[in-house]
Task: structure prediction
Amino acid sequence: MPLVLPDIDWLTLAPLLVLLSTASLAALYALYNRSSKAVALLALLGLAVAAIFNLQLFVASRAGELRSSFGLRYLADQGALAFNFVILLGAALAILISYDYLKRAELEQPEYYPLMLLSASGAMVMAAAGDLIILLLGLEIMSLAVYVLSAWRQQARESAEAGMKYFLLGAFASAFLIYGIALIYGATGFFSYPQIVAGLLAEGFEQIFLATLGGIMILAGLGFKVALVPFHQWAPDVYTGAPTPVTAFMSVVVKTAAFAALLRIFAFIYPELGVLAVQSLVVLIALTLIVGNFTALVQRGIKRMLAYSAVAHAGYLALAVLAAGNLGMRAAIWYLTAYTLMNAGAFAVLTLLSDRNDHGDDLERFAGLARSRPYLAAAMTVFLLSLAGIPLLAGFVGKILVFSAAIEAGYVSLTVIAIITSVVAMVYYLRPVMYMYFREPEYEPLQTNSRSTHIAIGIAVFGTVLLGIFPGWWYSLLDLGQSLLAGL
Amino acid sequence: MLTLNHFLALGAILFAIGLYGLLSRRNLVAILMSVEILLNAILVNVVAIARFNDQAQGDVFALFIIAIAAAEVAVGLALFLNVFRLNGVATVDPLRRMKE
Amino acid sequence: MLTFVVLSVLMIVGAVGVITLKQPVHAALSLVATLLTLAVTYVTLQAHFLAAIQVIVYAGAIMVLFLFVIMLLNIQGDQPQPHFRWMQIVAYLTALLAAGAIAATAFLSPRELPNAELMSEALAGGGAAAIGEALFNDFVLAFQLVGVLLLTGIIGAVSLVQRKATQTAKDERELSGV
Amino acid sequence: MNDIVTWAALAPVLALLGSLINGLFGRRLKEPLPGIIGSVAVGAGFVLSFIAFIALLGRTEPSVSLVLWPYLNAGSFSLELGFVIDSLSVIMMMIVTGVGLLIHIYSIGYMHGDSGFSRYFAGLNLFIAAMLILVMADSFLLMFVGWEGVGVVSYLLIGFWYRERLNADAARKAFIVNRIGDVGFLLAMFLIFKTFGTLNIAEVNEAALSLVFGSAALSLIALLLLLAATGKSAQLPLQVWLPDAMAGPTPVSALIHAATMVTAGVYLIARAAPLFAQSPAAAATVAWVGALTAIIAAFVALSQKDIKKILAYSTISQLGYMFVAVGVGAYWVGIFHFFTNAFFKALLFLTAGSVIHALGGEQNIDKMGGLGKSMKITGGTALIAALAISGAPFLSGFFSKDAILSASFNSELIAGYGNYVIYAILLLTAVMTAFYMFRWYYRVFAGSERLDKETKVRLHESPSIMTVPLLILAFFSVVAGYIGLPEFAFPNWLAPWLEQSIEAPVNFVHRAVLTEWLLIGLSVLAVAVGLGLAYWVYHLKNAAPLARFNQGFLGALNRFSQSGAGFDGLYRNVFINPGEGTAGGLAAVDKEVIDRGIRAGFVSVGLLGRLLGLWQSGYVRIYALAMLAGIAILVILLAVTGVMA
Result:
């Protein structure tokens, strides 16, 4: 039997391959040179090259050139490419933050960076997946690396616990995801999205029940990764226990990838499933918005507060998923861009305030920061206000886009809940601001050499403000977002 | 007569046993083994479905699940070693330094 | 049908053993039994190649890893539970409920399997060729990604377990925040 | 940029620039310099606004739109950020920058020697910028930018002297109450977008006029906007934050909490006038909220002892008047009263500031008295302001207040006899206003001195940098009313000028000239009664008749008034007491759970904390159980619906 070669468009794979080869190179280099500086630089270089390839693809796709590989199993449409940008940005910020942090905490094993790159490449695979198996493998690559990174501070019980907890619950959630995929396969006989949709729409199809069950389980599995209530409880604990730069990475890159995957399958597969598949997401979103925001209110530690805020933001983002289709996709990408900048920025500031054992993220650390470190306080204020959705910062525009997409899709009452909870959210975001500006300093802030963190904070502030004042350009770039699967 | 649903039911029962183990065992290694039962329950389903649909795709998926299980176990046991070294016990309940 | 029933009973007994036996070593051996029965089930489904993989990778490699860890660290069984007695009951109920719900949905529309001759015809000799074709055509990307996955696992596990030899016990206590 | 009017768009930019300079480099600048930078930035803004005003004066269509940049283009949602400078916004701009400039100058003297001098001016300039954005915005979105901006700056300035815990608390209270209003604004914005498909104010107004009169969507939008307005303008039931906001520096109270920001609610309603004119139910609600607020706040002001709190309640009461005006459909009158009020209310606060400054921080009026003798300018201008706010004939407050009274008497927007009841309430409020303002004046500036010895030594008239703004404001408090004389008998310049920007069809009954004169006579009488009563009680009898007010029914009434008409207590009981805590909402959660709860440990914080502790217990197995339960519920639902189907 002659072997038919699959269609491979190497350019579509280029960003992924660059990341993978950089990760391998870095891992090999780390074997004989334990200097983390070189490895970190190599990792950043890899991200930059991947971004260049991604840009080339993006330009091509804006010109209407839709590329894919392996028979629509690996997609390079606008959605995937825009998500790639967000993932690369998030990874770059996380690496910049990590470098100083690891040095300070004496955790400079250079394997850290290859793991982060591998995780980011898993995330990119998820964003590009046009097939449930590819999606699953991307998710596993991304997750395994993050499990390990969460436990990176091997001498700290919190960190070890975070890694273990995340792993156990993550494996549990993966089991559901795999089960869901198996059920969808059982119902339709296929794994790739177009074939699944074709199977669901085929004449005489009667396994809708099995397929919907599978859909719900996939929703649960991905819902775990983005921390939708009630699959969210790992998030606060793991976010608190993991090293702060890893928390930043998790809250940004992992979330982006999971949403990218969720958006795609929700837009193409779920409408063909039973009504309940969509309705379950509505319930999860309502729960997430309420639980996330109200529990964030009673948090004392900033890191934990940001963890719950990440849960709440998952709720807003899921609103965009619900509003599937082009508008929701664009809103979600936009929101995730903004979220990446402001959340990574907030965590970056946090790394500069806590001591080398990651202790001390409580509110008192922020007291009087406006006096002792005025620029840091100003940056943190920008991030928090943006997260709260104060106008003319990126977070506000993201919320507007998501809300209007949801309203357009007819989910008015859910949007009302979202608006009300977003106002509740201002209370807890403004509390650290109050401490920074209205209190006397209680701690002497650490004076450390932290150039790369400052670069990350600078990028994040610049991006947050720029996107807030001129949101149009990035949004219009996402304009032609014609998905490869749209016509199917 | 043997139908696909027999296998799906067998898978469901195994899955439920795995769930019970995951929730009731305190020993971390036993919990990891429960996760393996979960995955094997899915494997039963997948292979039966593959036969039913008369395709090799399902077998490939099963192969991937086994590979995923292998990678997960490696990382899981490494994380377990890490915890065991710090806590000195192999149970899951002391893992609650972070809460509320 | 008889084979199926016998294998199912063995498999379920093995699985129950995993979750009830106190000593982790016993549980692990019980799991090995389940996995081997599963391999036999694959054979009855004409998936010879998968059966081989199941024995080699699962029962072989993965279980050896488990046993290795259990023996090396001399892990003891569960101690009497200080709290969460209710958890056992809840776990029992939920598991029962989940099994019931999933099985019920599965039986809502029973579907017959094609007979064995048809299957083996399609898969000609254990299915290795058919699997290979699928693997290196439609799923070649997935195949490569599995490689990446295993690489990630290796780097992760190794970097987690290796430690700096110079670190003294005193440092550890200090850093762990005790 | 060919049109000279468009240069006024630079005003907020200049203020922002001033704020940036003071905020970033302020610490390196020597003392008066940040103040001068701030004043110049605002002054330039005033000049630009004034030029724009003059330029618009001669035009047949006094409205210039200026697109700044295209903001978003999302499917059916498309928005450009832009300013609109028309007869309505230019008046607001002149007041904001003009009064703002005077208060900046005054502040140079008032804040002399404060360690946060540059920080203060950075905040003040930022406020001016945000307020200008609010009034110039051509879309609800940009207006919301300014709306939030003034809120945040106000929060920072109330807490300016953050070392005193009370101030931080007041700042937070203001912030949280305003959030409730923000919910209204945001919801209204989305509803507007859903109904009209645009957020541009002019387009919305035009579309609203073609909608069915009194349609449900319109009423809902209008009521949500009203909720927003009540939050910002401290109207019932969200008035509780404003008296506490007086914890900030007095010039801040004058600028933000009396003259400008609090009138944003009135401005919002006037801007969106067609939405209200088309839904009589919402309009009547506005009027009733205003009337009730006016009388309740006046009642509370009768017994307050803090020199600034009296003024705070009087602000709330005056804002109530404005709400009645815009509620009954007399939009230009609402703006007119805002215009006159800006002068005399700012003047009242600045004189109070001058007194507090001279007495070294004393705010209790029982420990003042007779200050007019040693502080001639302050006392004199305070008298003018008190007369003006009371509505004494021929001063500015008289004309604007009378316009409101006559409008509420004549409006056809309110069905039944409601407008007459509202008129009666306002008339009674006018009596009370005159009374409490003169109580304030006599207790502070006239009568016997009740000062401590130490304070007496320090007593002095404020420096001229503070008194000159007082004189300017006093001048305008006298003359500002003459642009809006009663229409039936005199030429009125303001009404036609403003109505070019507010096109909302509201009918008023045209009564006989004699009736109109009678109405004016009644208002004069009301002022006279209040004034005379205050003169008798506080001047002739030196507060002796008040002895009776400590017991029996009158005593209870007195205590009720002193407690702010019970609202604070009510809110505490409803929202804050831990028993009902969880149901409470944000105010409760923030105050009780966060501050008290965290200190006392999580277990004692009431239901929410305990629930959370139980759920987020740290046990992996419980988390897994919760996940499983989530999936199980969904699967069971599926099974049930599946079996049903």
